[in-house]
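Field reference: "sequence" (input) and "structure" (output). Example, Cobalt-precorrin-5B C(1)-methyltransferase:
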Amino acid sequence: MAHEVGGVILLFGGTTEGRKAAALLDRLAMPFIYSTKTRVETFTTTHGEFRHGSLDEASLSELVSSRDVRLVIDAAHPFAARLHRSVFEVCERLAVRLIRFDRASVTFPDFDGLHSVADFPEALGLLKRLDPAKLLALTGVQSVDPLRPWWERHEMLLRILPSPASMELVQREGFPEAKLLPMNPDGSDEALEALVREHSVDCLLTKESGESGFFSSKLRVAERCGIPVIVIRRPPAPAFDTVVFSVDELQKCLTEHAALKPLRTGYTTGACAAAATKAAMIALLDGAAPDSVTLTLPSGKVASFGIISYRAGNGRVRCGVRKFAGDDPDVTHGLLIVSEVSLVPDGEPGEVRFLQGEGVGRVTLPGLEIPPGEPAINPVPRRMIRECVAAELRQRGLRYAVDVTISAPGGEAVARKTMNARLGITGGISILGTSGEVVPYSIEAWLASIRQSIAVAAANGCTTLALTSGLRSERHLRALYPDLPELASIHYGNFIGRSLELAGQHGGFKRVIVGVMLAKATKLAQGQADLSSRVVPLDPRWLATLAVDLGYSDELANQLADLHLVRNVTDLISFTSDEPLYLAIASACHRACRQWLSDTPLSFVLFDMEGRSVISD
């Protein structure tokens, strides 16, 4: 189940706790940045990205602000004292929620050979007094430099992880390769004791690293071998408000945080364009641009927009507004939306002409609300812009025609991530919006795009409509029907029921083809209109019941019931066009689709991961 916290989570790792936290965030579908001081071996992640490098308070503040971080998880090593302090100070200053994922402390046993010190200098002083013949340092690769005064003059072995980054660091520091013990410790007393005895070690040096650092094992081995162990105590930690010691505790904090923190709404490109136009008109008519402007949006909300760019010359003025999408994953978030205005003395007073600027698309196909040849500025944003122009002229008793050029630098690249090209909008993004507000994860916004795609397909002569959940099923479907135009292929996401209803409401299609992958098909076959895993979890037991009804063995049915991924059913039953189980699923899906589209001829195509198909007409 996905949990939205807004923005991205910044996770400081490089530890066992960091890996555990990353796995949890992946499982919860929470986007995160995995940050470490040095480059580490990456791991497979669906929702994470990696960064490395030291961060002081200034650079950390910049990272948090630029990436819209609203939750930080500090799972760094207990001895990363400077990092803990920086993270704490920055989160306090920027009012960002901070969770410390720590290692539980271990009670020190009572034996004579245990020596506790505050830091490396104190450890060096104690080593001089103990004067061991051979020290085994279990303090990690970062301790090479602090221990230099000892290993340059005395016998010392250093156990480190065998990662390329660790090996590179010790080589750079000049530590003798012959004294290195690169290995992945398994945490067993036996393995460490064997290492101690094999190398005739007579003293251990370790950090108070907690159980995930096998701290108790190190103390037990030292006592068993009768050798002293020097423990560097953890440095004092900041007064974290929230400290957890397990994945379960962390998950509870994350889910509570997601539930309690409301998602922020944003503003449409249309609202930003209108605000930029209002500022540009004020600057054109008064000679100075305002720092901000206020608009009453179509939704009724009064919104304030900061003006962050201004340029004037040759009777033209340009002002810009930075697009803010709130917590919606809007690809236009952060774009600069610019309006350039100029008076047209010989034009029709009151007329507003819309011109295409950099990064804004042009309509080339019929079926949209804007005719071909016009810049892709939708009706509501056009109305808002006209109202802004008229209001500023009216307040000053002026009557002019006005040219308005809306641009979005970088919009052409961003538009490649949208459906604009398929809708015949070339050269950039569309200036959109009906309410002026962006509601995070709005179903209505998704359905509006489906409705628009259906209208464009019909207006351009498509008589067959193909509905698929995404690109993979679309590729499979178009391989099966090579004459199907791209314009006729529409992604319904998870909303199969509403999409079929929209196709029926529009009318005019001679045939509708629905393509669904196997996992989602098991939900559709049960009559579900929304195939999202958040709404309807996969139910392998339904498959098992269907298999029994079709005469498959009880043993096979039990195997189906135990599947964790429905797509793995093909490992048990080969996917072929005449296999009874897949024929039954396809037939059930076809019947389910009929409840939302009853009059238009319909074909249903069931796909496996390789694109093999079972068709039900």
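The chain is about 35% helix and 20% strand.
The radius of gyration is 32 Å.
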